[in-house]
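User: I've been trying to design a sequence by hand for this structure and keep getting stuck. Would you show me what you'd pick, starting by listing the structure so we're on the same page?

Assistant: Good idea, let's start from the same input. This is the structure you sent:
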C-alpha cells in the first residue's frame, strides 16, 4: 500500500482517506489500507510491536481495511488493550489445545479477564481435568504457538454458523440467543479460523480482534481448574473452567507469578485461621463470619478510631434496625430494583418484613422525622449498620464477599449551594482515614449519567461537576467512566493499591438524585421556601468485613502496633522470672496496652520466641535474672534482627506509646 504523510488535513482524492493518530497528527492513506500499513508508515518498531488496532475507538484486527476517515490507535503488547488481545488470543489457543487432546470436547466461552483469561469446557463421557492435566495442555499450546498459525477472521450468516458448530452446542446456544434477541436470521456472525500447517482448521466463534498469528504469543501459564455453570445458571450444565494468565514478555509473566505466590501467602482466609481471628462455622451458614477475640479486637480498634474521627468531624451517630416492613423498601425502590439480592421476606402479625439490604432508607426516615431548616444543614449521619444481601454461594469469598455486611455508612444532607464544598471536605476526610490505615496509593473513577436515569439533566450536571471539583481539590489521579453511574446517582469510586500492587475498590461517594424525592425530603430556606436537600451517600471502608480482609492481606497479618490484637508478648526465661513478667504485663494493662505472657513451662525460650514471631506480635520482651535485678527487658522488635538488651521498662513503654500515638 502507498502511504504518504499528510501535512494538511483533507484530501479530494476519492481513493484517499484521512487517519487521525492519538497525538492528533493526521495522515492521508489509500482507501483500503490497514492498521498494519499505518504502523509501518510510522516506524518499523511500531510495525513489529503492533498486535491490533482501535478504529474510531472500536477494536479491530491489524488486517482490517480502512475505508473512511477515522481515528486510528495501534495497540501494542505492554498496554491494557494489548494485554487484553494477548489474553483473548491465548484463550483461543487453549481451546484448540484441549480439543486436540480430548476428542469430543465441547468448548463454551473464553474471555480475557483481569490479569489473565479462562475457557470453559465439557469433556466427553463426563471426564474431568485435573491440575496434572494442565502441564500436558500447556505443552500442546506451545506447539501451536511454535506452529505460527494465523488468526483469520471470517463472517458467515446465522444458518452457516449453526452448521459450522453443529457439534458444539454451547456455540450454537450463543448464536441462537443473539439471533433471538437482536440479530435477524440474515445477520452476519464473526468467527476466527486458526490454520494449521497440515491445512486443517480450528474455528471459534468470536468478535475479535486477535493477534496476527500464534507466534506473537508464548508468555503464558495455566493456573488452575475450577467448576462453572453454563451462563452462571445453577440449573444448567456444570462445566470445567481452566484459568490462565498471559503477558507481553516472560519477565512480566514471571513478575506476575511471583505476585500470585505472594498473594497466596497473604490470603486472608488462611491468615484468619492461623492467627485465630475469625471463622465461618457451617452451623451459621456461608458468608456469615464470626470474629474470635483477637479478630474482634482488631475490628473494635478500627471502629473506635473511625467513630472518634467522625465525631470530631461533626457527624451525628444514628442507629437503625436490622429489619423493616416491605413498605419501607417499596418507597426506597429496593424491592423494585434489588429484590433478587435480598433475603426472603418474613410474615409477622399480618405484615411483611425484610432484612435491610441498605442503611439509607432508615437514615431518610430520621431526616424526615421532623421539619428541617437551612440552619440544620449540612446534616451528617453516621452508622456502623449491618445489612444483609443474599450473595450466591459461588461468589462468596472469605471476608471480601459476605452476606452480612457492616457498612460504615454516612448520609450527608446539604443545600445545593454547599454541595461542592461538602464533597471536597468529605473526600479529604476519606483519604485521611485510609492513609492512617497504611493505604496511600489512590486512584479514582468518576461515573457519569447513564442512558437511563431519574431526575433532571441539570441536577446530574451540577452533581457531576461537584464530584469533579472534589477530585481536583484532592489532587488524586482519576478517570471519567462515561455513562457508568447508577441510574439514580453519579459517583466517585476510590481505588487503592496494596503492598503487592493489587487494586481494590474501597470508598464510594454518590450524589443521590432519587431518594430525596421518593421520601419527600425538604428543608426551609432562608427565604422561607421549601426545597429538596442534596443527599450524599458515603461508605468509607465499604464494609468492615471486606476492609478487614484487605488490611489483613496488605499487612500479611503483621498489623501495625496500634492495630495489633496483641502488642507485646512477655517471655520469662525461667519460672523464677514469672513474677517480674506479671508485673510488666499488669503495668502494660493499666496503660491500656495489650500483652500476653508465654511462661517458661510452656516450651523452650527459642520455641516461644518463634511462636510469637509466627503470631506476628510487634514486640517480644525477654526477661531473665539481670532484667529482674535492673528492672529492664530485652526487646525483640518484629522485623528486626538486632534485639536490644537491658532496656529500662519505662523507656520501652514510652517508645511503645509513641508508636501507637503516631499510628506508625
Amino acid at each position: 500500500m502507498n502511504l504518504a504523510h499528510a501535512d494538511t488535513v483533507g484530501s479530494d482524492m476519492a481513493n484517499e482517506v484521512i487517519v487521525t493518530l492519538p497525538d492528533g497528527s493526521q495522515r492521508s492513506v489509500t482507501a483500503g489500507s490497514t492498521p498494519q500499513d499505518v504502523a509501518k508508515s510510522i516506524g518499523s518498531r511500531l510495525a513489529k510491536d503492533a498486535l491490533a488496532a482501535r478504529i474510531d475507538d472500536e477494536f479491530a484486527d491489524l488486517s482490517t481495511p480502512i475505508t473512511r476517515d477515522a481515528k486510528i490507535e495501534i495497540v501494542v503488547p505492554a498496554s491494557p488493550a494489548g494485554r487484553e488481545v494477548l489474553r483473548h488470543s491465548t484463550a483461543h489457543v487453549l481451546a484448540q489445545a484441549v480439543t486436540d487432546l480430548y476428542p469430543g470436547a465441547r468448548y463454551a466461552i473464553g474471555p480475557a479477564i483481569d490479569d489473565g483469561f479462562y475457557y470453559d469446557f465439557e469433556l466427553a463421557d463426563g471426564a474431568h481435568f485435573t491440575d496434572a492435566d494442565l502441564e500436558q495442555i500447556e505443552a500442546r499450546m506451545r506447539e501451536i504457538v511454535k506452529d505460527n498459525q494465523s488468526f483469520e477472521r471470517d463472517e458467515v450468516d446465522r444458518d452457516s454458523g449453526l452448521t459450522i458448530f453443529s457439534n458444539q452446542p454451547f456455540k450454537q446456544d450463543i448464536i441462537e440467543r443473539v439471533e433471538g434477541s437482536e440479530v435477524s436470521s440474515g445477520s452476519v456472525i464473526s468467527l476466527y479460523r486458526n490454520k494449521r500447517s497440515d491445512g486443517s482448521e480450528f474455528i471459534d466463534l468470536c468478535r475479535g480482534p486477535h493477534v496476527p498469528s500464534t507466534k506473537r504469543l508464548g508468555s503464558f501459564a495455566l493456573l488452575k481448574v475450577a467448576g462453572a455453570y453454563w451462563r452462571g445458571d445453577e440449573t444448567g450444565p456444570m462445566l470445567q473452567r481452566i484459568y490462565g494468565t498471559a503477558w507481553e514478555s516472560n519477565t512480566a509473566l514471571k513478575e506476575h507469578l511471583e505476585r500470585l505466590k505472594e498473594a497466596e501467602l497473604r490470603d486472608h482466609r488462611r491468615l484468619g485461621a492461623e492467627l485465630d481471628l475469625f471463622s465461618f462455622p457451617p452451623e451459621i451458614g456461608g458468608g456469615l463470619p464470626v470474629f474470635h477475640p483477637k479478630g474482634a479486637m482488631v475490628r473494635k480498634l478500627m471502629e473506635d478510631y473511625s467513630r472518634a474521627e467522625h465525631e470530631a468531624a461533626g457527624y451525628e451517630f444514628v442507629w437503625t434496625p436490622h429489619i423493616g416492613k416491605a413498605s419501607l423498601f417499596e418507597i426506597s425502590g429496593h424491592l423494585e430494583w434489588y429484590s433478587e439480592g435480598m433475603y426472603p421476606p418474613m410474615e409477622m402479625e399480618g405484615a411483611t418484613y425484610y432484612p435491610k439490604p441498605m442503611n439509607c432508607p432508615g437514615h431518610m426516615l430520621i431526616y424526615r422525622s421532623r421539619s428541617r431548616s437551612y440552619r440544620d444543614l449540612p446534616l451528617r449521619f453516621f452508622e456502623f449498620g449491618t445489612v444483609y444481601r443474599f450473595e450466591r454461594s459461588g461468589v462468596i469469598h472469605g471476608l471480601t464477599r459476605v452476606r452480612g455486611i457492616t457498612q460504615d455508612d454516612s448520609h450527608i444532607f446539604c443545600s445545593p449551594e454547599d454541595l461542592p464544598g461538602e464533597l471536597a471536605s468529605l473526600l479529604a476526610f476519606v483519604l485521611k482515614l485510609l492513609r492512617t490505615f497504611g493505604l496511600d496509593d489512590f486512584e479514582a473513577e468518576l461515573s457519569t449519567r447513564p442512558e437511563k436515569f431519574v431526575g433532571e439533566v441539570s441536577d446530574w450536571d451540577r452533581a457531576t461537576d461537584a464530584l469533579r471539583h472534589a477530585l481536583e481539590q484532592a489532587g488524586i489521579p482519576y478517570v471519567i467512566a462515561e455513562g457508568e453511574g447508577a441510574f439514580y446517582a453519579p459517583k466517585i469510586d476510590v481505588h487503592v493499591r496494596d503492598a503487592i500492587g493489587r487494586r481494590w475498590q474501597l470508598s464510594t461517594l454518590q450524589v443521590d438524585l432519587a431518594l430525596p424525592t421518593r421520601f419527600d425530603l425538604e428543608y426551609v430556606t432562608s427565604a422561607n421556601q421549601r426545597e429538596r436537600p442534596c443527599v450524599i451517600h458515603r461508605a468509607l471502608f465499604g464494609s468492615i468485613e471486606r476492609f478487614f480482609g484487605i488490611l489483613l492481606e496488605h499487612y500479611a497479618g503483621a498489623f501495625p502496633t496500634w492495630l495489633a490484637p496483641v502488642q507485646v508478648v512477655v517471655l520469662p526465661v525461667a519460672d523464677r522470672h514469672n513474677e517480674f513478667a506479671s508485673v510488666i504485663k499488669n503495668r502494660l494493662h493499666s496503660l491500656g496496652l495489650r500483652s500476653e505472657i508465654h511462661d517458661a513451662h510452656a516450651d523452650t525460650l527459642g520455641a516461644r520466641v518463634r511462636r510469637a514471631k509466627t503470631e506476628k506480635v510487634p514486640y517480644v520482651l525477654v526477661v531473665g535474672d539481670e532484667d529482674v535485678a535492673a528492672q529492664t527487658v530485652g526487646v525483640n522488635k518484629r522485623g528486626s534482627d538486632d534485639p536490644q538488651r537491658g532496656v529500662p521498662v519505662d523507656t520501652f513503654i514510652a517508645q511503645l506509646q509513641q508508636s501507637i500515638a503516631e499510628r506508625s
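That's my pick for every position. To get oriented when you compare it with your attempt: The chain has four domains: 3-76, 81-263, 315-320+359-554, 568-662. DSSP finds 20 helices and 34 strands in the chain.
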